Amino acid sequence: MVRAAVLPAVGAPLEIAEIDLPDPGPGQVRIRLAAAGVCHSDLSLTNGTMRVPVPAVLGHEGAGTVVAVGEDVAHIAPGDRVVLNWAPSCGTCHACALGEVWLCANALNGAAGVYAHRASDGTDLHPGLNVAAFAEETVVSAACVLPLPDGIPLTDAALLGCAVLTGCGAVHHSARVREGETVAVFGVGGVGLSTLQAARIAGAAKIVAVDVSPEKEELARAAGATDYVVASENTAREIRALTGGQGVDVAVECVGRAVTIRTAWESTRRGGRTTVVGIGGKDQQVTFNALELFHWGRTLSGCVYGNSDPAKDLPVLAEHVRAGRLDLGALVTERIELAGIPAAFENMVAGKGGRALVVF
């Protein structure tokens, strides 16, 4: 038996329950989780902002140790330390053929399958975002498993599976921040803190962190922020004042709200670049008029999973960690058990803390 956090239905509270996991079949891997991060995407799945087959075991940011492998699995073996990749690329769809593996049309196909059963009544359970990391153990496709490079603490390595790939990818792959540029980061949660560190690593000259909570200033500055702005209706004006009236070269929005996206765009200079990482609901409508789009010449782009290729980017991030440039532990403001996930969601909604990490 394995303990897991089960989402019985959209909008329902999580339930800690025992589940039955099968032995790994061909092309599958069984993993004992060391840790799993509590991401805003998990909250979006519980409230219906993003769709997920239910009942499901959520959790998509995880790391652990391989327990067993099925037939036809060659790149890992029992005892290996691994990071979960919740969006594996198929390698054959149109996006993959273009090299845009983060847009793979088939990446989430596995989430529709049944991967385990509730022990009490045999109810079918789906793996939320493919990997079901809110559990002591999980069984996943071998495509969802990446070997963890040496020298990285296994517990903190969970953050590499989403927050760090997303935040660092937003800076390096999407916004393409260059040394000496100015950057504003909206939202100082797990992804935002990763983004701040990535901007520092990229050599940004000024890094402005923006959040609704004044209490997050210390976290933001420790991650690399040179300035901190408490979000208000004057945020764009404050950021322009910090940059000689011009605005920043790059804004990265990690919240997913229409007003924040619009403010991020307004905070950039003429010709500036805004990357939207946050996942918002369909009701979050962002509006622009045709004249301002022409006049400002700014770029607004979406960013999925940091526009990253996890297999290629994970070794690069690991080198940053080993060299002391990237501090995974600094993203974590709370280490909890499975039963603490609902409270972590509440803190997220209230704008408190960085990343909560479930430690098994």
Q: Describe it for me?
A:
By secondary structure, the protein is an alpha/beta fold. The chain has 11 helices and 18 strands. It has helices at 40-47, 94-97, 154-157, 163-174, 190-202, 217-223, 235-242, 258-266, 290-296, 310-322, 341-350; strands at residues 2-7, 15-20, 28-38, 56-57, 61-69, 81-84, 116-118, 124-127, 137-141, 145-147, 182-186, 206-211, 227-230, 248-253, 268-276, 299-302, 332-336, 355-359. The strands form 3 sheets. Strands 3, 5, 6, 9, 10, 17 and 18 form a 7-stranded mixed beta sheet that branches. Helix 4 (163-174) packs across helix 10 (310-322). It is globular, with a radius of gyration of 20 Å.
Q: Could you name the ranges where pLDDT drops below 50 across 5 or more consecutive residues?
A: none
The percent range for helix content is 25-40%
Distance between the termini: 15 Å
What string gives the helices and strands in order? EEEHEEEHEEEEHHEHEHEHEHEHEHEHE
Radius of gyration: 20 Å
Sheet-strand content, in percent, reads 25-35%
- Tally the helices: 11
Q: Report on the biggest sheet.
A: 7 strands, mixed
Apparent shape: globular
Count every beta strand, where a strand is a DSSP E run of 2 or more residues: 18
Q: What structural class do the secondary elements suggest? A: alpha/beta
Overall average pLDDT: 96
